[in-house]
Amino acid sequence: MFQAYTMQGISVCGSVASPLGANSRTACVTRNDPRLPCGTNVVSHRVYSWDWCVHKLHMKTNGRRMNATVRTNAKWMFGGEGRSNDARLERSESANEDILIFYFQMDLQTRIQYALNIEQFDVAKQLREKLTEIETEIIRQREAKRGSSKTEAQDKALNLLRVRADLQKAIDGENYALAAGLRDEIAKLEAESLAVSAKALAYQNVKYAFRLGQKVRHKVHGYRGVICGMDPVCCESKSWMVTANVEKLSKGPNQPFYQVLVDVYVDPELLVAYVAEENLSAAEESEKGRFDHPYIEFLFYGEDTAGDFIPIKQLREKYDQPRYEASEDEEDDDDNTNS
């Protein structure tokens, strides 16, 4: 089977064959124009292939060179025949996509700064246009999440004011049939506005049991993971919630959910899971050993003395999370990131 993804300025391809050697899986990324690092619609291409992640992220960051074939062949070495697929029900393509868009955003910011440093202002202008497109998509995704911003509550309030004004006009014009219909609409809008305001308040007041970069263990499936994102409530689609059996959770969807990177040596197919807080526990000291994932190197830089990962400044800002310092940690420099 052959997979190929093409974007303006990037060609991404991968081939899949037998794990036994002859036609082992490979990955390739070529840039036709360094000024255009991504297409005009990143999301529409849904570039979340394993091949791309391994080659692009592992071989780019920190100058480390990792053999893509070794990493992707782990799929057969550690995937294991007869392994339960229940854990994969929590696999989240939208969470994976969210992480990659975040990566593209940082990559563009770095390229813009480089273009300005070498006085290639036309290139910087083109890159800014691409960055604007990505940031627009990020805002759209953020606002699409359940109660993720005040915007929806404000829109409901404004709509309520408009309908009330229409009601007064209908009453003044003695159009009582129209007024009756508007009263029903107002009652509906008031209920919706109250619900949206409650969700917005929940976003502001939520307290998370886990932090960015923390190593955790899944209580049900037992795999190790690392927290790389968080939402106050489940922000996945209804179809995903059905597949992941969210309704069977004791707290349902109305609890914090986390984007969790899964150790590739445990399950290379899972990659990114979206897990309810009640299903996670902090990793024990003995479980904080080696952890491998293609996203680690651009989301975190190093480990603290407790054995957890230190999130880069941009990731903390994305989720408005304070900097955490384990006891006896030395001061680190936020500017010395590999983003």
From TrEMBL:
As recorded in UniProt, coiled-coil segments are none
Q: Where is the composition biased (Acidic residues)?
A: 327-339
Against InterPro entries, the record matches this protein to: Clp_protease_adapter_ClpF, Hemimethylated_DNA-bd_dom, Hemimethylated_DNA-bd_sf
Enumerate the spans annotated as Hemimethylated DNA-binding domain. Answer: 207-312
Q: Where is the composition biased (Basic and acidic residues)?
A: 317-326
GO-annotated molecular function: DNA binding
Which parts of the sequence are annotated with region: Disordered? 317-339
| Protein name (Swiss-Prot/TrEMBL) | Hemimethylated DNA-binding domain-containing protein
What organism is the protein native to?
Paspalum notatum var. saurae
